[in-house]
Specification:
- The complex is a heterodimer of chains A (416) and B (133).
- The radius of gyration of chain A is 22 Å and the shape is globular.
- Chain A has a 7-stranded mixed β-sheet, with helices on both faces. In chain A, strands 13-14-17-16 form a 4-stranded antiparallel β-sheet, covered by helices on one side. A two-stranded antiparallel sheet of chain A has the order 1-2.
- Chain A has 416 residues and is of the alpha/beta class.
- Chain A has 2 domains: 130 residues, Alpha-Beta Complex (Aspartate Aminotransferase, domain 1), CATH 3.90.1150.10; 256 residues, 3-Layer(aba) Sandwich (Aspartate Aminotransferase, domain 2), CATH 3.40.640.
- Chain A contains 14 helices and 17 strands.
- Helix content of chain A is 40%, strand content 17%.
- Chain B has a single domain, classed as Sufe protein. Chain: A, CATH 3.90.1010.10.
- Chain B is built from 5 helices and 3 strands; from the N terminus they run αβββαααα.
- In chain B, strands 1-2-3 form a 3-stranded antiparallel β-sheet, covered by helices on one side.
- The model of chain B has no long low-confidence stretch (mean pLDDT 90).
- Classes of the chains: A alpha/beta (416), B alpha+beta (133).
- Chains A and B meet through helix 12 and helix 14 of A and loops of B.
- The structure holds pyridoxal-5'-phosphate.
Chain lengths: 416, 133
């Protein structure tokens, strides 16, 4: 084993006490080792209690009633929006649109911006490492409009091919939509440079921040990104709430996505005038408690500090890569620790990823097995499925040792 | 701890007895489990009397899906097609002798789904083929 300085600036022991579920046993005597935060993160008490308090004390619909509860609920919902704005360093909270999740945010851009701005023959540039949520909306739109989709290729190491990216930009794509961090191989893409290059050829940019916003500082002004999508549930917040950030001029020129209450200014029989930003895109009663819960999650993460969280995850993934490299017959995907976030995907000769996950589960180690909603990337690597361990602020070096020991048990059991 | 992977399952996964292809075959069918990329292909030879004479499976996937397919082939040889149609989810669980959660159940039932779609002569293997009741 390489020598490791197992240091972190986080007080992980204390952080773990903030997450009630981390104290449970999955079976009598078997504590939970949760290494699946890329799928969804666990939730701290402050988030759970904030939502609980909202339902107990202030529950009401927003933007309509004139009574104390409605005013409290509206204020809390809008305060959550302001917290998101600050977290992203966005110019205005009007540019923060609440959606259900990353997937819905990307679909909003596809159907509103895409349907109104793109036409037959236009090129949309994607990459081979996208999650299905940043592929399928574009497939659907391409079918409808006759778009041409192109993909930046991924190297064997799991990095975007820079030369291929520059070649594809010469095709003058109208949109470049790409992930900030791969949920399979963990690669962190150099978003700022890629966005600048895409802008040089006149492309609009959409960044899938589902795996970046939870794990390191993402500053939309510094990135100069046109659209950013992410999910609350991967960043200590509840399910059912996500965010679309967009540049103001783009959002203003876009037609509404869903129609209904809240998104209108005035309705007559047969016509309507859309509301202003961000309400134009928030039709119907939104996920109020969830938005407020996301606000509490942002408070929590900010209190700990995104830079400290990123540093901690980097230490974990470096250690994990070294420990896993000791295990014979294990093939690890993705780049070296300096180019990635806290995600490690691997396969073992002679044992399917599902079987790895199942045996690990018997030791309380929760990982994910499958294609992780990135089938094209798995096709590229010519494997049906990978096993994936992922880390967050509450994981420890000890847990990685448990992971490694559990993998040895898989080897014993299957005799490989 | 590892009751899940009974010796039988590991053994049938590593040393399948009915893996292979029948060419020609009277009934062939295949399908995938999109969740995990398991794939099963099944070939049957059936006598005039409707009795399964030979059965083989091929494919790739997890130990549960592959062992389940191997055991299922063994089970149906000598059965009438009408009996094959009656095989239930519970029969598969009894055959494997383990408890399965909803995710792994799909792995265990893939071969039965493929088998039934083939025997019924359907164009597509659907989940309702292996749902009890
Ligand atoms: C990179 C990436 N993009 C998009 C998504 C989709 O997120 P959601 O299911 O919350 O919409 C995920 C979630 O797994 C992801 O990892």
């Amino acid at each position: 084993m390489a020598n490791h300085i197992l240091t972190t600036t986080l007080d992980v022991k204390k952080i773990r006490e903030d997450f009630p579920v981390l104290g449970r046993q999955v079976r009598p005597g078997v504590p939970l080792i949760y290494l699946d935060s890329t799928a969804t993160s666990q939730k701290p008490t402050s988030v759970i209690e904030t939502m609980d308090r909202f339902y107990r004390n202030s529950n009401a619909n927003i933007h309509r009633g004139i009574h104390v509860l409605a005013e409290e609920a509206t204020a809390a919902y809008e305060e959550a929006r302001e917290k998101v704005r600050r977290f992203l360093n966005a110019p205005s909270s009007r540019q923060v649109i609440f959606t259900r999740n990353t997937t819905e945010a990307i679909n909003l851009v596809a159907y509103s911006w895409g349907l109104s701005q793109l036409k037959s023959g236009d090129i949309v540039l994607l990459t081979e490492m996208e999650h299905h949520s940043n592929l399928v909306p574009w497939y659907l739109l391409a079918e409808r409009l006759g778009l041409r989709l192109e993909y930046v290729s991924v190297s064997d190491e799991g990095l975007l091919d820079v030369a291929d990216f520059e070649r594809k930009l010469e095709l003058k794509p109208k949109l470049f939509a790409f992930t900030h961090m791969s949920n399979v191989v963990g690669t962190i893409n150099p978003a700022k440079e890629m966005i600048a290059k895409a802008h040089q050829v006149g492309a609009i940019t959409l960044l899938d921040g589902a795996q970046s916003v939870p794990h390191f500082r993402v500053d939309v002004r510094d990135l100069d990104v046109d659209f950013l999508a992410f999910s609350g549930h991967k960043m200590c917040g509840p399910t059912g709430i996500g965010v679309l950030y967009g540049k103001k001029d783009l959002l203003e020129q876009m037609p509404p996505f869903l129609g209904g209450g809240d998104m209108i200014k005035r309705v007559t029989l047969g016509s309507f005038k859309p509301n202003e930003l961000p309400y134009k895109f928030e039709a119907g009663t939104p996920a109020i408690a969830e938005a407020i819960g996301l606000g509490a999650a942002i408070d929590y993460l900010s209190r700990i500090g995104m830079d400290a969280i990123a540093q901690h995850e980097h230490a974990l993934v470096s250690y994990a890569l070294d420990r896993l490299a000791e295990i014979p017959n294990l093939r690890i995907f993705g780049p070296s620790a300096d180019k990635k976030g806290g995600v490690v995907s691997f396969v073992m000769d002679g044992v399917h990823a599902h079987d790895i996950a199942q045996v690990l589960d018997q030791s309380g180690v929760a990982i994910r097995a499958g294609h992780h909603c990135a089938m094209p990337l798995h096709e590229k690597f010519q494997i049906p499925a990978t096993a994936r361990a992922s880390f967050y602020l509450y994981n420890t070096f000890d847990e990685i040792d448990h992971l490694v020991n559990a993998i040895y048990r898989v080897k014993d059991l299957f005799g490989v | 701890m590892d009751d899940f992977y009974r010796e039988l399952i590991i053994d049938r996964y590593k040393n399948p007895q009915f893996r292979g292809v029948l060419d020609p075959a009277d009934i062939s069918f295949e399908d995938d489990n999109p969740l995990c990329g398991d794939h099963i292909h099944i070939d049957l030879r059936v006598g005039e009397d409707g009795i399964v004479r030979e059965a083989r499976f091929d494919g790739k996937g997890c130990a549960i899906s592959q062992a389940s397919a191997d055991l299922l082939m063994e089970k149906i040889i000598g059965m009438h097609l009408d009996e094959v149609k009656q095989i239930s989810k519970q029969d598969i669980l009894d055959m494997l002798g383990i408890e399965l959660g909803p995710v792994r159940l799909k792995c265990a039932l893939l071969s039965l789904k493929v088998l039934k779609a083939g025997v019924y002569g359907l164009g597509e293997a659907t989940d309702d083929l292996v749902e009890d009741e």
